[in-house]
Amino acid sequence: MSADVLDDRATVDRLDRDGMLARIEALPEQCEEAWQHAADLRLPESHADVRDVILVGMGGSAIAGDLLRSLSLRLGSKPVQLIRGYDLPASVGESTLVVACSHSGNTEETLSAFQQAIEAGARTFAITTGGELKQLAEAAGPPAFLYTYDGEPRSAIGHQLMTLLALGQQLGLVEQQNTAVAEAVELMKAQRSELGFDSPSANNPAKQLAARLHERVPVIVGAGVLEQAAYRWKTQINENADSWAINETLPELDHNSIVGFGLPDVSRLHVVFLRHASLHPRLLLRYGATAEALDKVGVAHETVEALGSSALAQMLTAIYHGDLTSYYLGLLNDVHPSSVRPIDDLKAKLSER
Question: Is the peptide bond before 342 cis (omega within 30 degrees of 0)?
């Protein structure tokens, strides 16, 4: 499909009947609103002295946990794990806090893990819009922290992340985040002027990148605090553009994947490096050296720079750029950006067994 569709509002009206574009573009305001709402979050005193924290979630409801865990590695005083699946570690007990995050409240893997936490005597907390998770949390002790959002789990990242940040502050997992949230919101609003749909392709880096990724296999590479942003790019391209995408991390990529750069046919690969100047100096060297290795085997690549001085701003500005790019790639692929029919079909099959 011609890149002209990226400036064609009629194409958006035809494909995006559920308003995904508006939800993506409104992420800064969603984060502002969610941060204000999260000020009401109060953990019970019984949760204050936990030894470790386990976050459980799947798909779009897990990415906020990824981001909190990444921030906690740099700033926090307690170990944090993220579990994507049915089972908790055997070590979970009364000194563990298990936080379940499910947008719908009905994610079967998350419900399984949360029930295990209750049975193990762990302290529990839930973040959701309702569903069975809300009922389980209320029966187990502290009621779930509820938010309201009309959209897909992946579009609710602001609500989930801001709630987890507020929880993380109370637990000492992260430092005070008011300044970082304000910086991230301001920078994303500035990005929208350049990357939003009303900015024409001739001046819009996200639309231009989507055009280069069209009919290619994107390989998204991140490092440090941008590792999870790179994973978010991968999953958003999967779901918004109905397309394959690959996620890699530095420095791990340089210890295995680099050996296979030349084979098989690499002509359809396109690598996107997510980078920020504040990353470890040796990582910054690896970005350049890895790009040179790609040049040698003829793999196209480019770099997207994250913005901001805080780790949170760097994560969110990289994510915002990727969310918009994935949306524009969906337009080029002529697909409905909100539809995830293969996921829905698989869930329906599993429910019959």
Answer: no
270 catalytic residue (yes or no): no
Q: How far apart are CA 184 and CA 161, in angstroms?
A: 12
Residue 350 has a pLDDT of 67
The Cβ of residue 173 has, within 10 Å, a number of other Cβ atoms equal to 22
Single out the catalytic residue among 45, 255, 292, 352. 255
Choice between 312 and 338, residue whose per-residue pLDDT is larger: 312
- Return left, alpha or beta for 42; rule: phi > 0 is left, psi -120 to 50 is alpha, else beta: beta
> What are the structural domains, with CATH classification, of the chain?
3-17+189-332 (3.40.50.10490), 25-176 (3.40.50.10490)
d(CA 19, CA 10): 13
pLDDT score, position 74: 76
What's the one-letter identity of residue 338? S
Please compute the mean of the pLDDT values over residues 19-30 and round it to a whole number: 97
What is the strand order of the sheet 269-275 is part of?
Answer: 246-250, 217-223, 269-275, 300-305
Residue range 329-342, pLDDT digits in tens: 999 999 998 766 66
Set 138, 280, 305, 347: catalytic member: 347
Tell me, yes or no, if 214 is annotated catalytic. no
Q: Please give the average per-residue pLDDT across 186-199, as a whole number.
A: 98
Residue 255 is a catalytic residue: yes
Half-sphere exposure in the Cβ direction for 100 (13 Å, CA) = 41
Check 227, 239, 270, 276 and give the catalytic one: 239
